[in-house]
Write a structure and sequence with these properties.
It is found in: Cell membrane. Its main location: membrane. Keywords: Cell membrane, Membrane, Transmembrane, Transmembrane helix. InterPro entries: ABC/ECF_trnsptr_transmembrane, ECF_CbiQ, ECF_transporter_component. Helix 1 packs parallel to helix 10 and helix 2 packs antiparallel against helix 10. By secondary structure, the chain is mostly helical. The chain is globular and about 65 Å long. A two-stranded antiparallel sheet has the order 1-2. The relative contact order is 0.18.
Length: 253
Amino acid sequence: MGAGHAHRLYRHGHSPVHGLPPHTKLAATFAFVVVVVSTPREAMWAFGLYAVLLAGVAYAARVPAGFLLKRLLIEVPFVAFAVLMPFVAEGERVEVLGLQLSVSGLWGAWNVLAKGTLGVAASVLLASTTELRELLLGLQRLRLPPLLVQIASFMIRYGDVIADEMRRMRIARESRGFEASGVKHWGVLAKSAGALFIRSYERGERVHLAMISRGYAGSMPVIDEVTASRAQWSYALTLPFAALVVCLLGWTL
């Protein structure tokens, strides 16, 4: 995990949030999501306060609203599922705009939308202020099983290699006048997928042999040792602690 690896979700910056050690941000995000999920769905005002807290983090991290909203589109399938819940759930019915909807389904849809959106927004803020390499170092610092960290590292690194191989194969097909326009071209695409699998497998074997020849014995060397001061932990945990206060009020009020 020595070389840097940028990803599309990451937004380069020099904000206080960017400067926090990765394991503190991972712990804070996880704790925030746990608190949000633990909040009763009836405390609708609490979710509004959670959104305000996340907006404050986005402001401190200098992440534009448009950047954040665009990446929230990843939850569209969950939104579609939530929209269907009032129509398919059983129980007491209520009329809304001339439609007979399930009360429990409406509460379930609200629960999924509110908690899912806040969770995705927190994850997007984490990804936009932390590079992938730093996330892996943070997971390692939090004592995640080393094998899982290695698998994630290899997946991230060679995902781009495979994507680049796909791009070269597409350019080669197009340079020969190929253009997929119907079912009759599926055979060519299937052969391309097979060739891609073989090339990826062969490249993986070459990489593994190269690692063994350089002394790899089942564990990756730690080049950068990330640490966090008490002040940095306090700053990072401000978000989940504030959310915890809101959650407790949601249960008591």
